[in-house]
Amino acid sequence: MPALDINPNQADLVQALASGAASGEAGPLRRLDTHMSHVFLGVEHVYKLKRAIRHPFVDFSTLEKRQAACLEELRLNRRLAPTLYEAVLPACRASDGQIRLGGEGAILDYVVIMRRFADGALLDEIARAGALTEDQVLEAIDIIARFHAGLAPHFETGHAADYQRTLAGLRQTEAAGAAKLGLRPPSRALFARLSQALTQQSPLIEARRRQGWVREGHGDLHLRNICIFEGHVTPFDALEFDPALSITDVLYDLAFLLMDLRVRGLGGLAELAAARYWAVSGQEPVEGLLAVFMALRATVRMAVAMEAGDLTTAALYRRFVQDALQAPSPPTKAIASAPSFGPNP
């Protein structure tokens, strides 16, 4: 995405990271901006600085909040990518005025230190090149299923009403985006259908919550957040800023990846992935619920695109939601040779 405005209080640190002075890297470093971070790409390492921002969905406005977010990012991502995420270091201004990571002096901010993976290693990039393989998808699913199985259950959240609240928020997001464009909300009927589908799935959602399948998952598990690192499929960049978005039914976690595959026209790989997950996770296949969760994930993308004024992308995800709600997916055949990780005891 294009370069974003820099908070004046972070300008010196951004310059020091970009030049390589703060890290000791030979600069200049390539800078990438996301909605929440300034990211600097070194030769072997990546440096992530939380932007000093405050939005309705995230608050990084103080040093203490950015430190907490950095530490949470490290904790969450070391579960799946322990060698990719190395440390959180303070960025300090020394008595000579120089800014260094992990040095002495007044702490200006905190930075997440990661190993750098190769260019073109994102599964998103591999898929766009038409090179995503069945083996890569199956390895990803085995990792995700093992990850989900080892997580502690959360019984106090993940109610059916929580997904309805998510949907209501998305309805407001789309309406606000449409209003900025002078349009009527284009998906009113679709929101009503998805709400009805969630209501129909409520008994199963509640049963799975009581069974312990609501867990602190990845939260943002799509192809742009999975890479090939040290020869292995590696999910990274877990959602760290709102536990309400990451502590969900594990199928809602999985649904983002399956939806992403389907939207890209990789339905065969999505079917393979779903079949593998049922085979290795120890969970009873519930295709209808999975379809509704995929529709909800696509609705997130649809609403965000509408808010950004991207009508083409919004229409793409709207069509996916329509198709997902037509009928439950056909049963998938379990892969007999897959190992079983089973539920967390």
TrEMBL record:
Domain of life: Bacteria
Domain Aminoglycoside phosphotransferase: 65-277
Classification via InterPro entries: Aminoglycoside_PTrfase (IPR002575), Cell-binding_unc_protein (IPR052732), Kinase-like_dom_sf (IPR011009)
Stored Gene3D superfamilies: 3.90.1200.10
The protein, known as: Aminoglycoside phosphotransferase domain-containing protein
Organism the protein comes from: Caulobacter sp. (strain K31)
